[in-house]
Amino acid sequence: MCDNKLRYYRKKQKLTLKELSEKTGISVGYLSHLENGSRTNPSMKTMYSISQAVKASIEEVFFK
After folding, report:
1. CA distance 6 to 3
2. Residue 3 pLDDT
3. Pair 6, 59: CB distance under 8 Å
4. 55: phi > 0 → left, psi -120 to 50 → alpha, else beta; which?
5. What is the CATH class of 6-63?
6. How does pLDDT run along the chain (64 residues), one tens digit per residue?
7. Which has the closest alpha carbon to 54: 11, 2, 3?
8. Rounded Cα gap, residues 22 and 24, in angstroms
9. What is the pLDDT of residue 64?
10. Residue-by-residue DSSP string for 4-35
11. Contact call for residues 24 and 50 (beta carbons, < 8 A)
12. What is the pLDDT of residue 37?
């Protein structure tokens, strides 16, 4: 997986990690790890939930 742009898209939607967590059901800690790159290879379900919440495609957030 390439460097993700989760932080960029989250901030573009003016969401805090807590707000994104509430929208996706994914823990703040895991989202933080994804943003800083200490966790990689999220499941397709996780990538889909996040991409829907930040209004971008999975490819835009995780693979560009």
Report:
1. 9
2. 64
3. no
4. left
5. mainly alpha
6. 446 899 999 999 999 999 999 999 999 999 999 999 888 889 999 999 999 999 999 999 998 7
7. 11
8. 6
9. 76
10. P-HHHHHHHTT--HHHHHHHHT--HHHHHHHH
11. yes
12. 87
> In 10 A of CB 4, how many CB atoms?
21
φ/ψ of 5, rounded to 5, equals -115, 30
Task: Specify the residue for token string 């996780």.
Answer: 46
- Sketch the domain layout of the chain as residue ranges: 6-63
Q: Which residues contact 11 (CB under 8 A, 6 or more apart)?
A: none
Paired tokens of 2 = 């390439």
